[in-house]
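Handout, section B. The chain below has 622 residues.
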Amino acid sequence: MGLPIFFLELAIGQYSGLGPNKAFQRMAPIFHGLGYCTLVVITLVTIYYQVIVAWTIFYVFASFTSELGWGSCGHDFNTDDCYSEAANAECLSKSENESWPLTFIQRTCRPVGEICAENNQTMHNHTHCFNGTYNHLNTIVQRVLSSEEYYRDYALGINGATWESWGILRWEMVLCLLLSWIILYLCLMKGVQSSGKVTYFTAFFPYCVLLALLVRGVTLDGAYEGILFYVTPSWESLTNANVWGDAASQTFYALGIGCGSLVTLSSYNRFNNNCHRDAFIVSVANTLTAILAGFVVFAILGFLAKESGVSVKEVVSSGPGLAFITYPEAVLRMPLPQLWAILFFIMLFTLGTGSQFAGVEAINTAIIDQWPSLCKRKQWVAASTCAACFLLALPMCCSGGVYLFTVLDWNTASWAILIIGFAEVALVGWVYGCRCFLDNITEMSMHLSKFTRVYWSISWTVLAPAFLIGVLILTLNNFTPAYYGEYTFPEWVDGLGWLIGLASILPLPAFALYRLFRAKEVGWELLQPSKLWGPAQSTTLNIPTFGVYENSEKRYNAYENSDKPNSACDNFENCSWPGSVVVKTEPEPVHNRQSDARAYENLAFHHENGRKAFLCQNQTNS
């Protein structure tokens, strides 16, 4: 399911040379709003995802201490339920002269016998009260890991906050969020020209850390049990509808499907780039990376389970808890814990920042696509996007901000994104036509075999739509309201979550109705490619066109999403630069759907790094 949509988005962006807000509407005007749906999703995801990046920065700074803050229970924010393995080990070391072992409970060392008596357990029978494990005592008294209290009460600062009372802004987290956006802006201030270079580091550094963690993890006691738990299939889970829904959401999220970022990034490709090959390489690399990360995580979870005297299943957690509770707890029990904590959280920071490149670039490109005059002010566009997202994320820096984060995450990247994916394959498979789309792919010098063409056609018309509909039905049928830990949200917040999800898909019917009733376009016309639809490079003249045609003025504009040279002209008139190629000819129509040949005179061509060049011409009388 993921690969067909992944390749579809790459091909659309590369062929048209446009962002999602322009590309989809020109393929079929009835899908005018589809690009805006993807932009709503990527905007929401970008806002709340950067909060996670801010958390990683917070933990990076917290790791540069002689004693890791989440390793003890002696802080003001700790409660009497706090449990520290290091403190418990110290208590056990003092038990030599005691009739009963000492254990760490209520932030002090106490004899196990007293705890047994207080909880009506058989005092003189070790098998009934104390069997030497943390797990058994944990069933008698409430214990909370020090790493959990650190994350919950110090890093997030929840401290009793509710949805109705979010508390105050936590300035430590605000500063971390601000720093994360400043770093992101510096990486994106020049568009893909700057972010592309930084990506080499953000893409390869995590692999170095993962390999180091893997080597360290497999040498830890209990790693074998953790890895065995990881590779042992649980066949009964296949009957759980939620598993399929989660898997689909994870596929979309991991590959970046349905968010507009793939269309945006591929629009920067060379017109004849083999994105068919790229789709397979990226999909396989993504899968192998997930498998590698699984071995790293479960090797360390096996070690933590062994140290805690519990099963691996009992220490497995998902979401932020794995990164900010379970793993920090495991780091405490390794030699040189500060080193491994720093490496781990820097890795998370680079992964998060690298993931944000695509999202922010998609937003910036959409803005410039919509208002081409901003192309010479890209740095200001990037700064405005980052500043706006920073301000919108500030509520999630409050004590109860994690509740808003949970509601956004719960309802944005779930059922709504499945509908967007379905709309994309419906556009290509049922409206635009697989045959036409595969011909467009051939125009980009990708000559697919007959079998491959049949495979993609079946995938886009039958397999992917059917699978998406099935998963969507299962997801909605088994949908559960958002919750955070043991905290459940008020019922009206559940309604707010549904509105957030609906906002992600609302542009699709809204723009369709607008084109149908306000623009007075007939039904069949809405299903046909727009006259502005075309390739990013003319296959006749072998020059960039960026998918922009304007019949009414009988001229060719290639200013969409472009970087102007230093000597760029205004209003897209009388443009020429050193190295420009002036073409005076009448090209044949690029598409059969475009029956009228267009006369283009004084076409100035400046090609630099693929799509993002600037073209213009003088308007002439025909």
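Note. Residues 84 and 121 are 23 Å apart (CA to CA). Compare this with the example in section A.
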